[in-house]
YesU family protein
Amino acid sequence: MMLEDRSNFENQELLYENPLQSEADTEDFVIEGEGLASFPRDRLRLESRYGYPSNEDVYPHFLCWCPETFPDEIAVSWDFYPIHEPGLAMFWFAARGQNGEHVLDDSLSERNGRYGEDYGDSDINALHTSYFRRNTDVKTSNMSEERFGYYEREFQTVNLRKSKGLNPVMWGGDPIPGVAQANPPYRIRVVKYGPDVVFSVEDLEVYRWSDDGETHGPVLEGGSIGFRQMAPLIAEYADLKVHSVEKVE
């Protein structure tokens, strides 16, 4: 398919807006794991309470959930400011319990930020895309999860996975430079429209994926969104918006 033949997803109604400028803006957000939120520059700064690796017997990575529930056929966008690397940033969306519960429902298993145990083999379904992958001790893997000869900081990609199961489904090149060369903010936009997912940075499409609804289970619909980080990444977020979208052929 030629690029000009692809469908576009145009913003329609603004469903949710949050400047992420102060504690008042995030008082109902929930952090699972050892994450710390602050606002030193009038933006939401997320970082781990612990370094990595840590001398403490702790798991330093975490996930920060927005309490709202969103329908399908939306575009989520935000400003991203990388402050300190290495580490990794991740965005979770269309997240629900396996029986349709809100992702923060008390009936679901307790989660403490552990990637495989709490979010992979768990009682929630979600899509999650990792970007700004700058780990120095993790090698990049392909869609068959085969590791090859570059560490993530040497070969920078954006990956999409579908859970339950942390199944890799799509990847593309990451256009965001390292902290030393970065000129933030970088506007990130994620479209979720039925089976279709589109990830863009500064209006540059990085990947596009369509779920067949069979390989890794039924197509996910609406749900919750959240920001995850691997320590020792420090990053800031601002101007979070969620729009309904129209598919334009």
Observations:
- The longest strand covers residues 234-248.
- The two ends are 13 Å apart (CA to CA).
